[in-house]
Specification:
CATH superfamily of the largest domain in chain B: ACT domain
Distance between the termini of chain A: 77 Å
Keywords (chain B): Amino-acid biosynthesis, Branched-chain amino acid biosynthesis, Transferase
Shape of chain A: globular
Subunit structure (chain B): Dimer of large and small chains.
Strand order of the largest sheet of chain A: 3-2-4-5-7-6
Radius of gyration of chain B: 19 Å
Distance between the termini of chain B: 42 Å
EC number (chain B): 2.2.1.6
Number of domains of chain A: 3
Largest sheet of chain B: 5 strands, antiparallel
Enzyme class (chain B): transferase
Bound molecules: thiamine diphosphate
Structural class of chain A: alpha/beta
Number of strands of chain A: 20
Oligomer: heterodimer
InterPro entries (chain B): Acetalactate_synth_ssu, Acetolactate_synth/TF_NikR_C, Acetolactate_synth_ssu_C, ACT-like_dom_sf, ACT_dom, AHAS_ACT, AHAS_small-like_ACT
Radius of gyration of chain A: 26 Å
CATH architecture of the largest domain in chain B: 2-Layer Sandwich
Number of domains of chain B: 2
Largest interface: A-B, 34 and 32 residues
C-alpha cells in the first residue's frame, strides 16, 4: 500500500500500484529528477523556455547550464512567461514552455493558462511545488496549483516521484499539442526534483482516456457535400481552430471549389489573404457589414474550427436564422454547444477538409454546382457600400491629435509583408484586426476568448523569439497596443531589450481605457467612471517643462534601453514608423497621440441581434438588407426550382 | 439554447455511469465540472470495480437532454474518464442504501416494526426512544418506505445515492479498450 498521507487526495500516483515507494526501475542513466526534467525537455526538442526562478524550482534551475540545449528566457513577471509562450506557440506552431516557481509564481501564471485554454494554444507550464511532506500544511509558498487550475487547463499533473518525470513530460507535450490544443500544467514537487531516478528515452505514454478523433467518420462528408450542392447562399465561417490545424491551403481550396465566401473570427484573421476576393473579413461585434450580413442571410453556414462565441453570434437565437449548419471541429463538445449542427463533423480541420474537398467535387460532378451569382452580387454590394472606413466625420479628431485608424493603416502599409502582428485588448485590437492587411497565416496574435489586457508585449516577445528560432528573424514583429493594456506588462521591456527581442511597439495612446469609454459613451450616458489614464494629456504645444504624462512612454522605453519616439502629427507619425522599421537591434516604442473619442465601427451591441449592426451612428444596413435579402432568397429559390 | 442553470424543476431523472481511472484527484475534476456548469447532482457514488485500476462513478441528476449531452461531452474530455454511458431505466438494476433513525418508543414500536416487516428491510439498532432501519432498494421503494416512516418522526437519515448496473452478462468495463492501466 502507498503511504496514507493527505497527499493521496492530490497525487498522480495510483493508490494500488505495488512497490510504489521503492525504486523499481533500475535501467537507464542514474540522475536526479531535476536533471531528468532538463533532459526530457531536451529530448522533446524544446528550444526556448520562458520563466522566472524561485525556491521551490531551484533544483531545476540549478541544472540549466551553458551547455543546456534549450535557451532560457528570463521574464520579469510569470504572467508574461505564459503569454510569451503563447506568442511563441502561435507563431511557430510548436508547444510553448514556461518554468516558474511555486505559490505566487504559479498563481501569477494562471491568467496566461486560462488565456491559452480559451484560445486553444499548446502550452506546457512547469511549476515548482513544495516537498511531498509539506503538501497540505500551508508551507511557505505552497499553493494548490493543480486545484486552482482544474477549470482552465486541458490537463494537469502533480508529480511526486522523480521516476515519473520523463513519462509525465512526454504525455504533457503530447496532450498540449494534439487534439484540441491547450495548456497542460506539470506541478513538480521538490521531492521529485531532488529524488534519484533512472532516465530512459523514449517513454511509453499511458493515456487510456485520451483518443482525439482527427478523421471524419461515417456519412457526414457525403451529407456535407450534398448540402453544398443544395445551397444558394453558403458561407464558410472560419475560426482559430483552422489556424491551429494549419489549414490555410484547404480553406482556400474549399472556398474555390464551392465558390462560397469566407468570413473569419478574430482569431482566424490572415488564414485567407485579405486580397483574396472570397474574403469578406471578420464577422460579429466589430466585424464588417458584409461578413456579418453574409452569415445572417446564409442558407448554409459552414463553421470550421469555430465555436459560435457570443462576440460572433450576438443574440444567439437570431444568429444566421435561415442557415443550415455544418460544423467541423476537433472537439466534439463544441459541436451543438451553442447552435445545433445539421451535419456534425468531428475531426482535425485540415484532415477533414482534405476529405471533404474531393467529396464535394464528386458531388458537383453529379448534381452540378449551384449558381451563386445573386448571392455574390448582394454581398459585393454590402462590401462596396459599407467598407471598413475611418474617413468619416465621426472619426475625425477634433482636438488636433491623430486618428488611431489612420495610424493603423499607415503601420500596415509601411510594414514588411512578412510582419507578425500582435495586439493588446481594446479598441486598438479591433482596429488592428480590421485595418491591417493580412496576407499570411499565423501573422496575427491576439487574445480572443479571454480578452487579456497585458497580453501584447509578452506575446510579441514570444513571437519575436519564435521568429528568430524558426525564420532566422525574417519576420519582424509589430505590437499594436493600447496605453492601458501596455501598462499591464510594460516591465517586459526589460526582457525584450536584454533577451534580444527587437519588437516594434505602436501605442495608440488615447489616454483612456478606450473600449470601456466607448461603451460608457454609448450605453452609460457618457459617465466616464474610472477610464481616464492621464498618460497622454500633453499636446504638441505643451512646453517640455510642463510635460506631465504618467508615465511618459518615451522615457519609459529609454529607461529600459529601448528607443522611444512620439508622434503628435501625421508627418511625425510617418517619420517615426520609418525609423522603427529601420531599427532591428533593439525594441522601439512609438507613443502615437490619438483622439480619445474615436470609436470602433461597425458595432453590434452586446447581446443584440447581428441584424442590428450599426455601421455608423444612425445607419443599420442589415435591417434594410434583411428585408431585401428575403426577396433575393425568393428569387434564387425560384430560379432553382425551374 | 439558454441552459443555465442546467437543472430545472421538472427535468427528467437521468443516471450516468462513468468509468474513470482509479487514481486520486479524479473525483475533484469530475465534481468540479458539474459545479461549473450549474448541474445539480441528485446523487453521486464512487467506488472501485471488478478491475482495481478502474473506478465507477454513478451520477443521478434531474436535467434536460441538451445540457446533459454537453455535460457528457465535457466529461469525456477529462483524460481520466474512460467511458460514459447513460443507463436506460428499463434495462438497469439500480439500488440505494438508506439508514433511517425513527423516533419510536413502546407506544408505537410495533407499528414501525410492522412496516419494517412489510418492506422486508432490517432493524440495525434499537433504543428505548428510537429504531434505526437499514433499507436497500430502488428509489421508488425507498421513497415509499420513507413516506410511511415520516409519520413517526425521522430523527436522522442518510442515503448512499444510487448504484446501477445494466441487466445481462456484459460488463461496462469491457468497453474500455486496452489492458489494465498500470505502470505508473
Ligand atoms: C485584464 C483585463 N482587465 C480589464 C479588462 C476590461 N477592458 C477591456 S478593454 C479595456 C480598455 C483597454 O484600454 P487600452 O488598452 O488603453 O486600449 P484602447 O481600448 O484604448 O485601445 C478594458 C479595461 C480586460 N479586458 N482585461
Amino acid at each position: 500500500m502507498a503511504l496514507p498521507t493527505p497527499l493521496q487526495a492530490f497525487s498522480s500516483v495510483p493508490k494500488t500500484s505495488v512497490g510504489n515507494d521503492k525504486q523499481t526501475i533500475v535501467n537507464g542513466e542514474k540522475m536526479t529528477g531535476a536533471q531528468a526534467l532538463v533532459r526530457s525537455l531536451e529530448e522533446l526538442g524544446v528550444k526556448d523556455v520562458f520563466g522566472l526562478p524561485g525556491g521551490a524550482i531551484l533544483p531545476v534551475y540549478d541544472e540549466i547550464k551553458d551547455s543546456t540545449k534549450f535557451r532560457f528566457v528570463l521574464v520579469r513577471h510569470e504572467q508574461a512567461a505564459g503569454h510569451a509562450a503563447e506568442g511563441y506557440a502561435i507563431s511557430t506552431g510548436r508547444v510553448g514552455v514556461c518554468l516558474v516557481t511555486s505559490g505566487p509564481g504559479a498563481t501569477n501564471v494562471v491568467t496566461a493558462i486560462a488565456d491559452a485554454n480559451m484560445d486553444s494554444v499548446p502550452m506546457v507550464v512547469i511549476t515548482g511545488q513544495v516537498g511531498v511532506g509539506a503538501i497540505g500544511t500551508d508551507a511557505f509558498q505552497e499553493a494548490d496549483i493543480v486545484g486552482i487550475t482544474y477549470p482552465v487547463v486541458k490537463h494537469s499533473y502533480l508529480v511526486t516521484r522523480a521516476q515519473d518525470i520523463p513519462r509525465v513530460l512526454t504525455e504533457a507535450f503530447h496532450i498540449a499539442a494534439t487534439g484540441r490544443p491547450g495548456p497542460v500544467v506539470v506541478d513538480l514537487t521538490k521531492t521529485a526534483q531532488t529524488g534519484d531516478m533512472y532516465f530512459s528515452w523514449p517513454q511509453r505514454m499511458i493515456l487510456p482516456g485520451y483518443n482525439p478523433t482527427t478523421k471524419a467518420h461515417g456519412r457526414v462528408l457525403a451529407d456535407a457535400a450534398k448540402m453544398f450542392s443544395q445551397s444558394y447562399r453558403p458561407v464558410l465561417y472560419v475560426g482559430g481552430g483552422a489556424v491551429r490545424s494549419g489549414a490555410q491551403r484547404q480553406i482556400a481550396e474549399l472556398a474555390r471549389v464551392t465558390g462560397a465566401p469566407v468570413v473569419t473570427t478574430l482569431q482566424a484573421r490572415g488564414i485567407l489573404p485579405d486580397s483574396d476576393s472570397a474574403n469578406l473579413g471578420m464577422l460579429g461585434m466589430h466585424g464588417t457589414v458584409a461578413a456579418t450580413g453574409a452569415a445572417q442571410r446564409s442558407d448554409l453556414l459552414v463553421a470550421i474550427g469555430a465555436r459560435f462565441d457570443d462576440r460572433v453570434t450576438g443574440d444567439l437565437t437570431s444568429f444566421a436564422p435561415t442557415a443550415r449548419v455544418i460544423h467541423i471541429d476537433i472537439d466534439p463538445a463544441e459541436i451543438g454547444k451553442n447552435r445545433v449542427a445539421d451535419v456534425p463533423i468531428v475531426g482535425d480541420v485540415a484532415c477533414v477538409l482534405d476529405d471533404l474537398i474531393p467529396e464535394t467535387t464528386r458531388t458537383q460532378a453529379i448534381h452540378g454546382k449551384p449558381d451563386l451569382t445573386h448571392w455574390w452580387a448582394s454581398l459585393n454590394k454590402l462590401r462596396e457600400d459599407y467598407p471598413i472606413d475611418y474617413d468619416q466625420p465621426e472619426d475625425q479628431p477634433t482636438d488636433g491629435s491623430l486618428s488611431p485608424q489612420w495610424v493603423v493603416k499607415q503601420l500596415s502599409g509601411m510594414a514588411d509583408p512578412e510582419t507578425i502582428w500582435v495586439a493588446g485588448v481594446g479598441q486598438h485590437q479591433m482596429w488592428a484586426s480590421q485595418l491591417v492587411d493580412f496576407e499570411r497565416p499565423r501573422s496575427w496574435i491576439s487574445s480572443g476568448g479571454l480578452g487579456t489586457m497585458g497580453y501584447g508585449l509578452p506575446a510579441a516577445i514570444g513571437a519575436s523569439l519564435g521568429s528568430q528560432r524558426d525564420f532566422e528573424g525574417r519576420k519582424p514583429v509589430w505590437l499594436i497596443d493600447g496605453d492601458g493594456s501596455f501598462q499591464m506588462s510594460s516591465e517586459e521591456l526589460a526582457t525584450a531589450f536584454l533577451d534580444g527581442a527587437p519588437v516594434k511597439i505602436a501605442i495608440l495612446n488615447n489616454s483612456v481605457y478606450g473600449m470601456v469609454r466607448q461603451w460608457q459613451t454609448l450605453f452609460y450616458n457618457k459617465h466616464y467612471s474610472a477610464t481616464m489614464l492621464r498618460d497622454g494629456e500633453a499636446t504638441k504645444d505643451t512646453a517640455p517643462e510642463d510635460f506631465v504624462d504618467v508615465p511618459d512612454f518615451v522615457k519609459l522605453a529609454e529607461a529600459y534601453g529601448c528607443v522611444g519616439l512620439r508622434a503628435f502629427t501625421e508627418e511625425q507619425a510617418i517619420d517615426a514608423i520609418k525609423r522603427a522599421n529601420e531599427i532591428n537591434d533593439r525594441p522601439v516604442l512609438i507613443d502615437f497621440r490619438v483622439w480619445k473619442d474615436a470609436m470602433v465601427w461597425p458595432m453590434v451591441a452586446a447581446g443584440a441581434p447581428n441584424d442590428e449592426v450599426t455601421y455608423r451612428p444612425g445607419t443599420k444596413p442589415l435591417r434594410r438588407a434583411a428585408a431585401q435579402g428575403a426577396d433575393d432568397a425568393a428569387q434564387v429559390s425560384g430560379a432553382a426550382s425551374v | 439554447m439558454a441552459n443555465y442553470p442546467a437543472s430545472q424543476p421538472g427535468s427528467q431523472r437521468h443516471t450516468l455511469s462513468v468509468l474513470v481511472e482509479n487514481r486520486p484527484g479524479v473525483l475533484a475534476r469530475v465534481a468540479g465540472l458539474f459545479a461549473r456548469r450549474a448541474f445539480n447532482i441528485n446523487s453521486l457514488s464512487v467506488s472501485p470495480t471488478e478491475r482495481p485500476d478502474i473506478s465507477r462513478i454513478t451520477v443521478t441528476a434531474d436535467v434536460d437532454t441538451v445540457p446533459l449531452e454537453q455535460i457528457i461531452k465535457q466529461l469525456n474530455k477529462l483524460l481520466h474518464v474512460l467511458k460514459i454511458v447513460e443507463l436506460d431505466a428499463a434495462t438497469t438494476v439500480d439500488r440505494e442504501l438508506v439508514l433511517i433513525k425513527v423516533a419510536a418508543d413502546e407506544s408505537n414500536r410495533s407499528d414501525v416494526l410492522e412496516i419494517v416487516r412489510l418492506f422486508r428491510v432490517n432493524v440495525v439498532d434499537v433504543h428505548p426512544e428510537s429504531l434505526t432501519i437499514e433499507a436497500t432498494g430502488a428509489e421508488g421503494k425507498i421513497d415509499a418506505l420513507l413516506g410511511l416512516l415520516e409519520h413517526y418522526g425521522v430523527i436522522e437519515l442518510v442515503r448512499s445515492g444510487s448504484v446501477a448496473v445494466t441487466r445481462g452478462p456484459r460488463a461496462l468495463s469491457e468497453k474500455v479498450l486496452g489492458s489494465e492501466i498500470t505502470g505508473r
